[in-house]
Design goal:
The chain is mainly alpha-helical. It has six helices and no strands. Helix 1 packs antiparallel against helix 4, helix 2 runs antiparallel to helix 3 (85-115) and helix 4 (121-148) packs across helix 5 (152-370). The radius of gyration is 83 Å and the shape is elongated. The model is unreliable at 1-7, 37-41, 379-383 and 390-397 (pLDDT under 50).
């Protein structure tokens, strides 16, 4: 912004503005002198606060009554059949929206008033600080206006206050975000703490369970150790007993074996002498049988030679008889062939004779039926026929 544009056009305007600023400064000075530091300790402090809260409550009640009336009117209009129902509902909706907004603002103002009590010294000190700041800004602007006819200091103060307010707003936002983050972290901390407490409880239960198992295992181990010790002692005793019994049995067996060995030595001597005697007898028998074998071999060889000669004679005789048999067999075969031919010839002749007889009989029958040859038709023929018929009947009989 150009500084020259911030100046006033005429001295009269400068004077008017300076007069207004001077009046504002005087009022602020008077307000600072008459304004108490705090309402605390004053007898009428409760009455002041009560009146303020009463006014806020009364206004809020009025808004609530108005809101109830509007809702009732809207309900009645909705179910009625009057003309212009739509316009009336739209107007009622607008009124309800306005009243609900005022009610909401009144609630916020009432809540803020309850949070910030005018009885505390902090609010009044803040008001005094704001008044002193406005007073100093006005004085500075009045001096600048009287000297140069401009009020740049006022604009700079407003801009600096805006920057401070923006920085304060950012600080408040960061503080709120920090508080939200702190609340979130606190919730997370509580959740983690609960999880850890549950985990610790589970682990404590597991530790107690493991301790119980350890005690059971110790008791079981002690019992098993005692049992194993007693069992080992019993097994050692049984083993020693079995070993002593086995040792005694082996000693008895050793004595029996010694007696048996002596007996076996004696028996072996007797058997040896018997076998020697028997061997001599067997050697004599072997010599006898060898001589007998030689004699039998010679005799059998002679018999074999005789049998071979007899075999050669029988073989020659067999060949002669085989040749003679072949000749006789040839003669018999030829005789059989001749007889078969004669039989077939006789059968053929008999068949031919039978066929010739049948043929002659058939031919006679034909000649008789047709009257051929000596069987021509006539008296003689009839007589001959009668005779032949009688003969045929006799033959049939």
């Amino acid at each position: 912004m150009d500084p020259d544009s911030m100046g006033l056009s005429t001295p009269a305007d400068v004077l008017q503005v300076a007069t207004v600023l001077e009046d504002c400064v005087d009022q602020l000075v008077v307000l600072g002198k008459i304004m108490p530091v705090s309402y605390e300790g004053r007898p009428d402090a409760d009455e002041i606060v009560g009146d303020e809260i009463g006014r806020i409550v009364d206004s809020q009640r009025q808004l609530e009554q108005q809101f109830s009336q509007l809702m009732t009117a809207r309900q009645d209009t909705k179910f009625s059949g009057a003309i212009g129902k739509t316009n009336r509902l739209m107007q009622l909706d607008q009124d309800i929206t306005a009243v609900s907004g005022g009610l909401k603002g009144s609630n916020q103002f009432f809540t803020r008033s309850l949070k910030q009590s005018p009885l505390t010294s902090d609010n009044l000190e803040k008001i005094q600080a704001d008044r002193a700041f406005v007073e100093s800004v006005m004085v500075e602007a009045q001096s600048e206006l009287a000297v140069s006819g401009t009020f740049l200091s006022l604009l700079q103060s407003v801009l600096s206050e805006r920057e401070k307010k923006a920085n304060l707003q950012q600080t408040i936002l960061r503080e709120e975000e920090g508080r939200k983050r702190i609340k979130q972290l606190q919730r997370l901390k509580l959740e983690v703490r609960k999880e850890k407490e549950v985990e610790i409880q589970n682990r404590n239960e597991m530790i107690a369970h493991l301790k119980d198992q350890l005690q059971e295992m110790k008791a079981k181990t002690n019992m098993e150790g005692k049992y194993v010790k007693k069992n080992s002692e019993v097994q050692v005793f049984q083993t020693q007993k079995r070993c002593s019994m086995s040792e005694q049995a082996l000693r008895e067996e050793l004595e029996a074996l010694k007696v048996k060995i002596d007996e076996e030595v004696r028996v072996n001597g007797e058997i040896e002498s018997f076998l020697k005697t028997h061997q001599r007898e067997l050697e004599e028998k072997v010599e006898y049988w060898m001589e007998k074998y030689d004699k039998d071999v010679d005799a059998k060889q002679h018999e074999l030679d005789v049998l071979k000669a007899s075999k050669a004679q029988d073989l020659a005789r067999l060949q002669e008889l085989t040749k003679l048999y072949a000749e006789y067999e040839q003669v018999v075969v030829e005789d059989r062939i001749e007889k078969e031919k004669a039989r077939r010839k006789a059968e053929q002749e008999a068949i031919e004779l039978q066929c010739a007889t049948k043929l002659q009989a058939w031919w006679r029958g034909v000649m008789v039926r047709k009257g051929l040859g000596p069987y021509k038709k006539g008296k003689k023929g009839k007589k001959g026929k009668k005779k032949s018929g009688k003969k045929g009947k006799k033959k049939k009989k």
